[in-house]
Design brief:
Layout (H helix, E strand, L loop, with lengths): L3 H10 L4 E5 L2 E4 H17 L7 E5 L4 H12 L3 E4 L6 H11 L3 E4 L4 H8 L7 E4 L8 E2 H5 L16 E6 L9 E5 H11 L10 E4 L6 H13 L2 E4 L5 H11 L3 E4 L1 H9 L13 E5 L5 H10 L4 E7 L6 E5 L10 H10 L5 E2 L4 E5 L12 E6 L6 E2 L3 H7 E2 L2 E10 L5 E6 L4 E3 L2 E3 L1 H9 L4 E11 L3 E10 L7 H9 L10 E4 L13 H8 L5 E2 L3
Parallel strand pairs: 1-11, 3-4, 3-5, 5-6, 6-7, 10-11, 10-12, 12-13, 13-14, 26-27, 27-28
Antiparallel strand pairs: 1-2, 8-9, 9-19, 14-15, 15-16, 17-18, 18-21, 20-21, 21-22, 23-24, 25-26
Helix pairs in contact: 1-2, 1-8, 2-3, 10-11
Length: 524
Amino acid sequence: MNTSEFLNITSLIVPDRTAIIFDGKRISYSELALRVARLANALRDLGVKSGDRIATMEVNCNEHIEAYFAAAKLDAIYVPINFRATESELEYMLNDSSPTVLLAGSRYTDMIGPISTKIDSLKVLIVIDGSADGWHTYDQMVNSDRDDEMFPESDDDDLTMLMFTAGTTGSPKGVMLSHDSFSSYILSNVSPPDMEVEEKNILTVPLYHIAGVQAVMAAIYGGRTLIIQRQFEPVEWMALVEDEKANRAMMVPTMLKMLLDHEEFPNHDLSSLEVITYGAAPMPLEVIRRAIEMLPGTFFINAFGQTETAATITMLPPEDHILEGSSEEVEIKLKRLTSIGKPLDDVEVRIVSEDGDAVALGETGEIVARGSRLMKGYWKQEEATAEALRGGWLYTGDLGYFDEDGYIFLSGRAKDFIKRGGEMVSPEEVEQVLHSHPSIDEAAIIGVPDVDWGERVRAIVVAKDGETIDGNEVIEYCRSRLSSFKKPESVVVVHELPRNPLGKVLKRVLRESHSCLLYTSDAA
């Protein structure tokens, strides 16, 4: 299905229902459809045609959603740009994607101006808020009287979005996503609008990230109301949930931890929350246990996927988050809380060796996936595409293993795995142990070069407020809970871990900063 149909269908079934709540505005589904039609007509009048790229650089806002669906109506390709990009990163992504149109917030126009003169493909600049010299204004485009209906010709397999990876290990790659990349998941896992059932979904994950886009697609097709937060801020988030009675939320572990730790948490009524979906980065066991205890009545879902899969491919459902039953049953569920659940029905997942053969139960290998929702490849990168897509399977770069009940447990990224004296050490496994230490707030494991062992295991940790960390004690703590070769052999205490905006720890940065140190502490 062409994704433009998501909005068409919902605006016909529940036209008067609020589609978006943002910045004091309430936009109904019929109004949203009208704004999208007017924007599409204006873009067509400016020369946008099928296959052109339309880029957007702005914090979360309704204009992101309108621009995507307008692009879909024009058979154009939408390119969401990370609003935190530096000048060099922005220039790289614009050169690579070659957009015809760039929409941006006024705060970015000064940076974009000089860069835009170097991008030959770029013909139209549109400022989303306010005005800027030489830029078209967004308000003029959506307030025009041109709202002719458009009938896109793109089918399921045609490209609809070019989304850049986070670039945690190098330059970002443009992931090519088709209409089917989104519709195959949505049609299998989301119910269409029900005139008798209304749900509100608070959106805080950035819309240049696949988790944010997936949340929008699900909400639009499902007829849900989207409560949009520009960027995550804990107190504002709690106030929005309380005031608007939000039912659903998508969060990354860092966001959830910030909420639970915040002094204002007890002062807000969050009882309307029925479902919190989390993902995009590993969830420490201690954090999800606290969340389950502190948000009674809320169901939790762990959704695992990546940009290249366009959506969730494995899920740990709500029932696996209910810590009830006998002590043995609770122990099993606690173990499962450290997993990413089981594959969804509409995608095939295997775990394979370096040769591509299925590994034995319990043995670590690379997670590979197959299904219609996978990316078409990397934009203008044939070699990287051939490496990632082999024999119809996407090689995710994530390592993991199946347990006897079919649950998948992550072992880390292939590039982050540590090889110590011929033994393979999973950073994820060691990090889970470190997160259970009473004095450690955050932890990451890296491998450091060693002449005798190839690599040694190093822990980078952040102390909880008011706590001090003794490196030797931490090593002994891990020794009693892990095989000897897996325990950290050195500990570095830091003030904070470097993370990308979605909370993933930047292991590359840690290796660059801490590969040559012995036990030390920059937090002393």
